[in-house]
Amino acid sequence: MTTTHVAVGSRPHSAEAQPGENYLNCSHGLKSWLLTLDHKRIGVMYLIATLGSFLLGGIFALLVRTEHLTAGKTIMDADTYNQMFTLHGAVMVFLFIIPAIPAAFGNFVLPIMLGAKDVAFPRLNLASFYFWIAGAVLAVVSIAINAPDTGWTFYTPYSTSTATSVIPVVFGVFILGFSSIFTGLNFIVTIHKLRPKEMGWFQMPLFLWGLYATALIQILATPVLAITLLLLILERSLGIGIFDPALGGDPVLFQHFFWFYSHPAVYIMILPAMGIISELITTYSHKHIFSYRFIAYSSVAIAIFGFLVWGHHMFTSGQSSLLSMIFSAITFSVAIPSAIKVFNWVVTMYKGSIDLKTPMWYALIFIWVFSIGGLTGIFLGTLSVDVHLHDTYFVVAHFHYVMFGGTVMALLGGLHHWWPKMFGRMYNERWAQVATFLVFVGFNLTFFTQFVMGSRGMPRRYYMYPEEFTNWHVASTWGSYIMAAGFVLTAIYLLRSLAKGPIAPMNPWGGATLEWQTTSPPPHYNFDGDPPKTGDPYDFDRVKYDPETGSYYHEPLRG
Amino acid sequence: MTAHSAAHAEHPPHLAHHFETPVQQFESGKLGMWLFLGTELLMFGGLFCAYAIYRANHPDIFLYAHQFLDKKLGGINTVVLICSSLTMAWAVRAAQLGQRALLVLMLLLTLACAGGFMGIKYVEYKAKFEHGLLPGTHYVAQTDHGHGGDHAAPGHEAAAGEAAAPHAAAGDAHATPAEGDAVAHEMAADEAAAHALEVTPTPPVSAADAPKIGRAAAAPGTFRPGPEPTTDGHGPAAVPANPQIFFGIYFAMTGLHGFHVLAGMIVITWLLVLSLRGTFGPDYFTPVDLVGLYWHIVDLIWIFLFPLLYLIH
Lengths: 559, 313
Description:
The structure holds 2 protein chains of 2 kinds.
Chain A: H1 2-10, H2 30-34, H3 39-67, H4 78-114, H5 122-146, H6 158-161, H7 166-193, H8 206-238, H9 251-285, H10 292-305, H11 321-349, H12 358-381, H13 383-389, H14 393-423, H15 429-455, H16 470-500, E1 543-546, E2 551-554
Antiparallel strand pairs in A: 1-2
Chain B: H1 22-57, H2 59-65, H3 71-97, H4 100-130, H5 156-161, H6 177-197, H7 244-276, H8 286-310
Helix pairs in contact in B: 1-2, 1-7, 1-8, 2-6, 3-4, 3-8, 4-7, 7-8
C-alpha cells in the first residue's frame, strides 16, 4: 500500500496546499460553488438545502399544530388544513429527512473517513444535487399552483380524484428518487473501490456501515417507487386504470407498491442516523465502541428486514390474515438488530470517560427517544392492537419519535459534532446546551401527548376533534412552540459562530477517525499530503490531549 | 479543481484526479454501471409485478387482448434488437482493439437497428391508436369480439400462416375451426373462473367523468362489460370485461422500454461522435463498454416483454 500512497503524493496537483488554504477558500465566486465537483462543497450545499426544507416543513407543522389549539376552526379552513399536513409530510420526508444525513454529512465525511480525495463519481454527485433541486422546485411549484391534499402517501383514490395539483409534486418526488439513487450508487462504489487496501471492511468507521446499508436500500427500493409514481401519473393524466377499480384496477396495489419503497425508506432515514450515534457515543465516551461487528452487521440486518415488512402498513386494508401474521412476525424481528445497537451503545458508555458536550447530549436523547419510538412500533406491529391504533395519533407519535426523535436528534448531534470540521469555527457550548434542552422538552411535550390522544381514539389527519382532547392538543401545540424556539436558538448561535466563533482546532472532541486527523476545515484534497495510516478506527489509546492547542492529536501508529 | 488542472498532463489523460490507477477508475465505472442496471431491473420489476398480478387475476383479459398485438412485427423487432446487441458487443471489442473504422461502423449499425426498432414500434402504436386499442378510459370496445378481423390486427394473415405456432393465432378469423374452438373453450373457462372470484362490477362511471377523447364517445361510460360468457364454449369468443387493463400494461411496459431505447440512441450517438474524434483505444474504452452493458439490458428486457405480451397462450 505504501507504494500507492507515494504515487498519490508525488502527483503535483495534490501537492500541499498553501498554509491556511482550505476547501472553503481555495476558490471564490458563486460559480466555484454551483459547478463544484468537491464532495465537501456539495455536502455543504445539501446541508443548506435540506435545512431550508426543514424550515419550510417546520412552518407547515407549526401551522397544523396552531390550527389544533381549538377543537373547531382556529386559523384555517378544512381544505387548507389538508394541504398543510400533506405539505408538512411530503416536504419533511422527501426533501429533508431522506436526503439530509446521507447527502449532507455522508457527502462531506465519507471520502475523508476513507482517506480518499472524493467520491467515485464527482460529476454524478453534482448531478444528483441538481436532481434534488429540480425535484424541490417542482414540489414548490405544486404548492404555488394548488397544493395537494392527499397526505404525503398519495394513496389512490385520493390522489386520482382530488382537484389539487398532484402531478407536479409526484413528478418532483420521482426526480428526487433519482437524486437518492445516484447518491447511494456513488457511496457504494466509493466504499468498494476507493477504500484504502489496508482498511478492511471491519476497519471502517461505523458511520460508513450505516451509509453503506442505507445506500443498498436506496438502490434497491427507490426504483420501485419511481415506477409506482410513473403509474400514478399515467393513472391521473391518461386514466390507464391500473389503480382504478372502475376500470378493473386495484387501489390496494398502489399501497403495496408504495410501501415496498416507503417502508425501506424509513430505514433510509434511520440507518445513517444510527451510524452517527455510533460515532458520537464512542467519541464522547473516549472509549472503543463495544462489539463493532454486531453494530456493523445489525445495520445490514435492518436493511434486509426492512424489505420484508411493508405489509404492516396495510393490516386494515383487507390484506389476508395469513399475510398479516407473517408481516407482523417479521416486523417484530426488526426489534432485534435495533436493540443490539442500543445495548452496544449503552455498554460502550459503561466505564467510559464521558464528556457531556452537545453532540453527546443529542446522542443520549436519541437512545432514550428512539427506544420509546421503537417499542411503540412493537405495539403497532401487533395485529390486534394495530386495529385499534391504526390511523390514530398513536401512529403519528410513534413515527415522530423514530423519525424526529431518532433521525433529527442524530442529525443535530452530527451537525454539532462536525460543525467545527466543516466550517472551522466553534459554537457556543452553553447556548447549544440550552437549545438542546428546549428541543428535548418541546419534542416530548409535542409528541408524548399524542401517544395519549391516539390510544384514546383521536384519529390522525382530522381537522376537528371532540372537546375532551382540547387540553392534550393545546399541550402538544405548546410543545411544538418550545421546540421551534430551540431550533431558532440553534440557528442563531451556529450562524453567529461562523463570524465570531473561536477558530476550531484539528480535533476538538478527541475523535479517532480520519476526519479528525486533517485540518479544520480540510484542504481541497482532504489531507495535506498523504492521508494518515489507518488501523482500528476507534483506537482511543493513540488519541492524546494537548492543553496548549486545546486539541487532541494522534500518536503515530506503532508497529 | 480548476486551480490544479494544469497538472493533469502528468498522468494518463483520462484518469480523474481522485483515482490512483486507470484500473481502479475502470472498475469503479463498471461497478457503478452494474448497480445502475440493477435499479433499472427493479424499476421494470414493478411493471412485471403488475403484469403478474393482473394476469393471474384476469387471465381471460390477457388471452383476449393479446390477439390484437402483431406477432410478426414484434418478432421482427426482437430479431432487430438481438442483432443490435451483437453489433454493440462488436463495437466494444473494436474499441478495445483500437479499430476505429470498425468501431464507427458497428456503432452506426447499432443505431440503425435501434432506429428500425423504434420505427416498427411506431407502426404498431399507430395501428393501436387508430383502432382505439388504448389503456383505461381511452379504450374503444372492439366490435368483432376479438376475431381481429381485417382492421384490428394487421399482422394476422401472417400469424395464421405460422404453422410452427398454431395456437399463436388464437381467436383469429383465419385460424382453423378446431383452433378457434379450443381457444373459445379456454377463454370461457377462464371467464367463468374470473367471474366466480369477482365482486359485482362497479357501476358505470357517469359520462361526465369520462374524459373528452372523441373515440370514447362510441362507447359511453368507462366500464365495458363484455357479452355474457358462453359457457358451452361455442359461438362467438367471449369478450372479457375490462380488456383495457391489458393495454394499460402493454403501453406502460413497451413505452418505458421505448424510452430506454431512445436514451440508448442518444448515448450511442455521443459515443459515435467521440469515436470519430478518436477518443477510444486500448487504453481507454470505458464509455463504450458501459453503454454496451446498458444496451444489452435494454435488449434483455425486450426479450422478456415480447413473449409476455405477444405470445400469451
